[in-house]
Design brief:
Blueprint: E1 30-33, H1 35-41, H2 49-61, E2 66-70, H3 76-87, E3 96-102, H4 105-114, E4 120-128, H5 131-138, H6 142-160, E5 166-174, H7 181-195, E6 203-209, H8 216-229, E7 236-242, H9 249-258, E8 263-266, H10 280-289, H11 301-312, H12 333-349, H13 382-393, H14 399-416, H15 421-433, E9 439-448, E10 458-466, E11 469-477, H16 480-492, E12 496-505, E13 514-522, E14 528-535, H17 538-554
Parallel strand pairs: 1-2, 1-8, 2-3, 3-4, 4-5, 5-6, 6-7, 7-8
Antiparallel strand pairs: 9-10, 10-11, 12-13, 13-14
């Protein structure tokens, strides 16, 4: 049994004045990617310089205006990467690069050396303020911890006097979620007093869930409490940096935005220490799905995946929100049917608003295709098979035919697992379209005899082969199909009733083809069979459907049923 008693509950904030539950997210925050620092340091095989350069270009292309590029005072590799960005003039004028640095003079001096020549920089300093780390790591009291932050701020302020670019200060009370709120506020206010921000040049206070320690609502309470207790709030950009230790990084981020956060630090697909940072793409796509502009260029998730996986050597899980290979699929039969009907309704209503069951967004909006929407396995229903046929191949299978084909596909899936669209089409073709023997339609001539004052208005002269023997019938009826039925009955004795007929165009244009679907019932036995025919001529497609049904009805032993 799990020894749950060795753990203690993390206390919640007594904050009855909270307002965030009544709010809605209205706009995108300031996004800051920390992929090249927090994400990179968590890789089994950290990126080399050229990989980091490619990743940086991706982030710029995606529209990030703030990008943390590393810890240049920590290693020569980090330093060289930053200088390569400068030397190759890869940093756009509208992008702020962010560097991280501890509150130590020699590291701050090295960092200023590294950022020389950059137009816009966020200088990010930090020190841990949590009760646990004060006790077991630093052996310092609150005043000593606060003094570290104050001295670090003074060092950056002094160094900034000789910096030619635009410099913003960011301060993080690391392990904020494990810090007493009054102390976190005290430290931040002390930093602000030293830095003296303005409305035009605000200070960034980053309040990280360095370790996610409680439910997302607690983090939201902490963020709102800080936001409402800061003095000179208009001179502050309140930033958050959630990790995902409890699997709630996205929820914590969204609630923190409701609580007053202005800025979000995170990574693509949530790469980062331990369980990772918050996935910025997940949060951005969530906004997008609610009709909010995420203010990122994330229309092609496949490109983002390709570059990220290649540079980080980390795969995107198949169930990852919005990006996974399986997220726009439906294995359940009822889900497949609902998707099919939803897509049909969307088309028929010509709606500009996306509303399709089980698909929160249109896959094409993120560069995905409709082809993977429905996947077929032993749990799939009849609607899914029909949907695949329509989406991949244009065949609008009548509802009456759904079960027969679906039963065949289900039997296949039980034997082999998932059935591909190609296999579904091959089965459909073999069952119906290729049911051309032993009765094989060859050609026909149709004559309108409506002026003859007779019982029928159509005459058909049709040639076919019966077990290889050529035969010709002359049939009369009310329309071509009726005429062929009568002719076949008189010549060969096939007594049938037509109980279903559908047709539609498969493609548009001069080379368009028509598909015809027919159900014939044996008048003597009551047995029935479906037939399908395709042709560039609608009459020929219906004649082929008749012969397909006849072969399946009277010669089932020769067919792939």
């Amino acid at each position: 049994m799990l020894n749950y008693q060795k753990y203690k509950r993390v206390p919640v904030l007594d904050y009855k004045e909270r307002q965030w539950p009544n709010k809605e997210i209205q706009k995108a925050p300031i996004w800051c990617s920390v992929d090249l620092r927090d994400g990179n340091q968590a890789l089994i095989e950290p990126m080399v310089v050229e990989e980091k350069l490619e990743f940086f270009n991706l982030l710029v292309k995606l529209g990030f205006k703030e990008i943390e590029i590393g810890f240049p005072s920590a290693s020569q590799l980090e330093y060289d990467f930053l200088r390569t960005l400068v030397d190759r003039k890869m940093i756009p004028d509208d992008v702020r690069v962010q560097i991280l640095c501890q509150c130590r003079q020699h590291l701050i001096d090295k960092s200023f050396e590294a950022i020389k020549g950059i137009k816009n920089v966020v200088f990010h300093i930090y020190n841990s303020t949590s009760t646990l780390q004060r006790d077991v790591v630093f052996h310092m009291n609150r005043e000593e911890i606060k003094q570290i932050a104050i001295e670090g701020t003074k060092m950056v302020k002094e160094g900034a006097k000789n910096f030619d670019g635009n410099l913003w200060l960011e301060y993080s009370p690391e392990s904020f979620t494990g810090t007493e709120m009054d102390f976190a506020l005290e430290v931040c206010e002390a930093v602000k007093e030293v830095w003296q921000p303005t409305v035009e040049r605000p200070i960034i206070f980053n309040l990280p869930a360095t370790v996610e320690m409680n439910t997302p609502n607690v983090y939201a309470d902490q963020i709102e409490w800080m936001s409402t207790h800061f003095t000179e709030r208009e001179k502050i950009i309140l930033s958050i940096h959630p990790h995902n230790d409890r699997g709630c990084g996205v929820a914590a981020t969204e609630l923190a935005l409701l609580a007053g956060a202005d800025r979000v630090e995170g990574t693509l697909f949530g790469n980062g220490e331990r369980t990772g940072n918050v996935d910025i793409l997940n949060v951005a796509y969530n906004m997008f799905s609610q009709g909010i502009n995420p203010e990122l260029n994330i229309e092609n998730v496949n490109e983002i995946i390709e570059v990220t996986e290649r540079c980080t050597k980390m795969g995107v899980p198949p169930r990852h929100p919005y990006a996974g290979k399986l997220v726009f699929t439906a294995f359940s039969g009822s889900h497949q049917d609902a998707i099919s009907k939803g897509m049909q309704a969307l088309h028929e209503r010509n709606s500009t608003i996306w509303e399709v069951p089980y698909l929160p967004i249109d896959p094409s909006d993120v560069g995905r295709e409709y082809e993977p929407l429905v996947r077929i396995n032993s749990q799939s229903g009849k609607g899914g098979v029909a949907f695949v046929l329509e989406q991949y191949y244009g065949f609008k299978l009548p509802k009456e035919m759904h079960k027969e084909l679906a039963d065949k596909i289900q039997a296949m899936s039980e034997a082999q697992g998932e059935v591909s669209p190609e296999q579904i089409m091959d089965t459909f073709r073999n069952m119906y379209i290729n049911a051309k023997e032993p009765l094989h339609f060859r050609k026909a001539r149709i004559e309108d005899i409506s002026d003859d004052q007779g019982e029928y208005d159509t005459k058909v002269l049709l040639t076919y082969t019966d077990h290889g023997e050529e035969k010709v019938i002359e049939g009369f009826g009310n329309g071509p199909i009726d005429a062929v039925k009568h002719g076949l009955r008189q010549q060969s004795g096939f007594r049938t009733k037509l109980t279903m007929y559908h047709e539609h165009a498969l493609t548009l244009g001069s080379d368009s083809q028509a598909a015809s679907y027919i159900e014939l019932v044996n008048s003597d036995t009551g047995a029935s069979a479906y037939g399908v025919g395709i042709s560039s001529n609608i009459n020929r497609s219906s004649f082929r459907a008749i012969f397909s049904a006849l072969n399946r009805l009277f010669y089932p032993e020769t067919q792939d049923m």
